[in-house]
Amino acid sequence: MRFTLSHAVPRPLHAIRHLVLVSAIVPLAHAAELRPPDPAAEGAVPPAMATFKAAEPLAKLVAEAVQNNPEIQAARKDSDAASQRIAPAAALDDPMLEAGFVNVPTNSFRLDQEDMTMKMVGVSQRFPYPGKRGLREDVASADARAADYNLQETVNRIVRDLKVAYFDLGLVLASTRLVEKNRAILEQFLRIAEARYAVGQGNQADVLKAQTQLSKMDDELIKLGRERPMLEADMNRTLGRGIASVPPAPEPAELRETPLRFEALYEHALRSRPQLLALQSTIARNEKALALAHKDYYPDFDVRLSYDQRDNMPNGTKRSDMVSVTLAINLPVWHESKRGPRVAEAQAMRDQAERMYAAQRNELAMKLRQQNATAEQNLRSARLYQKDILPQARLTVEASLAAYRVNRVDFLTLLDNQMSIFNFELAYAAAVANYNKALAEIDLLTGRPAQ
């Protein structure tokens, strides 16, 4: 136990010591107000904060994540690859070059014996049925648009992850500062309880209660210290930094009110959410694929041009060379086993994309309504703590201190009032962080550009 018995010291000296300790609490209680962190105003930086460098603006970290995150880089490469598939999709097949000997007699293998023996060189080219090449290009273009929208969605999702980790880490650091500050006040309370107990004006329960609250503060610091490395690792992941990189320190959280109206947000999301736009491109792509499957019932054309050179007759008579032009088509006769299943597959893929789009719209409306309500609730809570609860709680602590000096309030009441203001400050910090995180989720859901 952390209390002493000093019967050898005169009681007046104990009384003077008691008054000095009580008076020392007043500035500490006034310092408990939750403001943007200022090391000069709050005293020395706690040990838990000592390894952090200067705070980095969120906008700077967003730009770094967009540039360096491996997942975004992979999505960017996928978009580039999809755009390169458009031109080949509409291109003709490579022409075929052929050469050989035609109608060579087997009894002599002479090239001048028979009139129809020729040395031939030819070229052939396949031409798809009109409309097929355009549909193939449309399919590839729709795939490229979907890949580009998926890239935008990936960027927005990574930025959302970064913002959430940024605000969570900021909350942990703000909570650490509040715990350190409250712990310093509780240590003063403990000295007062010990002094009063030593002169017979207090009781042992006051001392034990103060020690218990100090132990709780130590436990809170342990919990916060456990959360901090996980959030730092998450931020480094989204930023594309290495394991040994120093994690960024977030700026103090601010309550920046943003107008939120569900109907306007939902309409904006339908127009701008990359995920929905990608599904729309997929639907358009599958429509073109279905049309292409129907075109497969029509034949393609093979055009062949060849030049046939003939040798002179054995008696020297000259033979004229020949030119051949042929046209061939494939016969699309295997409907049930080949083309019918392809059409059915294309229809199923189109219907699947349409159902997926409808499901994503419903999920978007649900999540947007949830995050909108979360933002509004946390905004109201933060306003209440900022304008009403915290000022009233501080006045209560000041009044308790004044009453405690003249023994009109017991120690436990004073301690409970101080713990109440500590809990209110934590709740205010959490409300601000949760409000900012809800705004980050709304930005993702509505497809607002990363910023």
Fold and architecture overview:
Helix content is 66%, strand content 8%. It is α+β, with helices and mostly antiparallel strands and 451 residues long. It has 2 domains: 11-92 and 128-297 and 332-446, Outer membrane efflux proteins (OEP) (Up-down Bundle), CATH 1.20.1600; 93-127 and 298-331. Strands 2-3-5-6 form a 4-stranded antiparallel sheet, with no helix packed on it. Strands 1-4 form a two-stranded parallel sheet. The longest helix has 71 residues, at 335-405.
CATH architecture of the largest domain: Up-down Bundle
CA gyration radius, whole angstroms: 40 Å
Give the SSE string.
HHEHHHEEHHEHHEEHH
Task: Quote the average pLDDT.
Answer: 86
Helix content: 55-70%
Annotated CATH topology of the largest domain: Outer membrane efflux proteins (OEP)
Apparent shape = rod-shaped
Beta-strand proportion: 5-15%
**Mind describing the biggest β-sheet?**
4 strands, antiparallel
Computed structural class: alpha+beta
Number of strands: 6
Provide the number of structural domains. Answer: 2
Annotation field: number of helices = 11
Q: Which strand order spans the largest sheet, edge to edge or round the barrel? A: 2-3-5-6
Spans of at least 5 consecutive residues with low confidence? 1-52
Distance between the termini: 54 Å
CATH homologous superfamily classification of the largest domain: Outer membrane efflux proteins (OEP)
CATH class category name of the largest domain: Mainly Alpha
